[in-house]
Amino acid sequence: MPNMTLRDIANALDLSVSTVSKALRDSYEIGYETKKRVMNYARANHYLPNRMAKSLKEGKSGSIGVVVCSIDNSFVSRMLDGIDGACTAAGYDIIIMQSKESLAQEKSCLKQLEARGVEGILISPAAETINLDHIVGLRAIGMPTVLFDRISERFDSYQVGVDNREGAFLATQHLIANGYMRIAMLNIGPDIHFASLRGKGYQDALRANHIPYREEYVRLCNPSSRDTLKDCVSTNIRSLLELPTPPEALFTTTDQLSTHSLSVMHQLGYQIPQDIALIGFSNTELADILTPPLSTVYQPAFEIGRKAAEKLIALIVGKEEPEEYETVMLPVQLDIRESSRTRIEPKR
User: Fold this and answer.
1) What is the spatial distance between Cα 290 and Cα 49, in angstroms, rounded to a whole number?
2) Which of 43, 101, 213, 339 fits 224 for a cystine, CB–CB 3.0-4.6 Å?
3) In this predicted model, what pLDDT tens digit does every residue of 174-204 receive, in sequence order?
4) Which of 47, 48, 44, 26 is closest to 35 using CA atoms?
5) Helix (H, G, I), strand (E, B) or coil at 330
6) What is the number of other CB atoms lying within 10 angstroms of the CB of residue 274?
7) Calpha distance 221→219 (Å, rounded)
């Protein structure tokens, strides 16, 4: 069966094609009752507007570009759910592209999205993205742009994320309160803004509790390759546990670092938390069923995506002005589970 057209609806409701078109666009020229009749009929008969024709006529694509590091983890998937929900409700399609943590690929993604005529871009910058000039350049050509998750003080636009420094402080403070004094941190690099903030939060907690910062307890891994990341986690965990005075607990700063660390410790035969406690930034839905259940710094991923999309749509339709730019910081929370329970001193 061919798709229903505006003329089909007009004939069925004894209205003009122009009236039906305006009703479906929620025009002020059409009364509420007429709009309701048209909307109900269109919905009941599964009317699908010709998006291509609409785009050509109005000069708008009806699509929004989204650039993420990767879609192979639950945190990013939840953010994309939030973005999709907000965009669908507002009548926009989304085009999702992955940078794979590569600056060059991120730039390529942005060029492709621009070429496709998207009306706005949501971007969570790649790990290699230190300089944001190519993203700032989008604004120079009039492209509405919102940063989400991996936000930066160097970007003067709308941003939606969490308080990374506070989340790391809370995680480290929790370990200290549970009796762990020798706490290591596995991070992804000081040049990555959100990772740097998480590192500072870790140091803040040590300082607040008069615990010396030990460089040998801080290890870094490059997240650009999944296989390389796994190898790096394994190497660093082994090295930490072989120190003359090994750490009693480990704080990991990303989802993948957390789950890889848990796996490596199991492979090495370490008991968690008896031998070493673990807490990390992680939104994995498996945290409750891991062995042991994993303590996490929980980030509201769905809300990050939803609010970022809503902000972008408001920019696109002209409801927000540049002087109203803001950074929305959503709160994090600790989900405490077995992996970081109170330390029990070994019997002598």
Assistant:
1) 46
2) 101
3) 999 999 999 999 998 777 888 999 999 999 9
4) 26
5) strand
6) 12
7) 7
Overall domain count for the chain: 2
Q: For tokens 């409801």, name the residue.
A: 319
Q: Give the type of residue at 176.
A: I
Domain that holds residue 178: 164-300+334-340
Task: Read off the CATH number of the domain in which 101 is found.
Answer: 3.40.50.2300
- Using a 10 angstrom Cβ sphere, with 0-12 exposed, 13-18 middle and 19 or more buried, the burial of residue 80 is buried
Chain mean position to CA 326? 18
Asked if the bond preceding 292 is cis, omega within 30° of 0, the reply is yes
Region of residue 213 (phi > 0: left; psi between -120 and 50: alpha; otherwise: beta): beta
Rg (CA), the chain: 25
Q: How confident is the prediction for the chain on average, in pLDDT?
A: 87
Angstrom distance (rounded) from CA 49 to CA 302? 28
Residue 9: φ, ψ to 5° = -65, -45
Q: 24-27, long-range: CB within 8 Å, 24+ apart, which pairs?
A: 24/49
- On whether both 120 and 136 belong to a single domain, the answer is yes
* Burial zone of 212 (CB within 10 Å; 0-12 exposed, 13-18 middle, 19+ buried): exposed
Q: Which helix (H) or strand (E) holds 78?
A: helix 74-89
The secondary structure of residue 323, as a DSSP letter, is G
Could you tell me the CA-to-CA distances from 37 to 40, 49, 51, 81, 189 in Å, in that order?
5, 17, 22, 31, 58
pLDDT band at 56 (very low <50, low <70, confident <90, very high): very low
Q: Are residues 274 and 168 in the same domain?
A: yes
Report yes or no on whether pTM surpasses 0.85.
Answer: no
DSSP strand pairing (295-298 vs 333-335) = antiparallel
Query: Could you give the C-alpha distances from 7 to 12, 14, 38, 44, 141, in angstroms and in order?
Result: 9, 10, 12, 16, 38
Q: Are residues 172 and 79 in the same domain?
A: no
Helix, strand or coil, per DSSP, at residue 173: helix
**Which residues, in sequence order, are bridge partners of residue 121?**
65, 145
User: 125 CB contacts (<8 Å, ≥6 apart)?
Assistant: 99, 106, 132, 135, 147, 150, 152
